[in-house]
Amino acid sequence: MWGGRGIMYPRASVYRGHPLLRNTSSEAGKLIRLPNTMEQLKHLIGKKFGFDTNGAIITNEEGAEIDSIEVIRDNDRLFIVEEYDFIKLDANKL
Question: Which residues form the KHA domain (predicted)?
């Protein structure tokens, strides 16, 4: 996405829930412009989806935790994963 003066702003699609648990009936994602820090990213995601992201982690499509804003690329798909998502994931393994 291009901003003013030819500056490119990276963006990402963000989804709520673990990528391995989502299905076609899951909540729609949100397209966001990436902020400068992980803290800002989690805050923005919390505002977009209307929940507290403290204790949640951000993963990629394979479920790998992302802990640095620098590794996120333009058009990446990100997932905000809450603790109960891990409980459901463990229950599905049984």
Answer: 11-94
- Rounded-to-integer distance, Cα 33 and Cα 43, Å: 13
- Find the CATH number of the domain harbouring 57: 3.10.20.90
Which positions of the chain have pLDDT values less than 70?
1-7, 25, 86-94
Q: Residue-wise over 36-47: b if at least 16 C-beta within 10 A, else e?
A: eeeeebbebbee
The residue whose two tokens read 């394979």 is: 62
Q: Report pTM.
A: 0.82
Q: How many domains does the chain have?
A: 1
Q: State both tokens at 25.
A: 């009936």
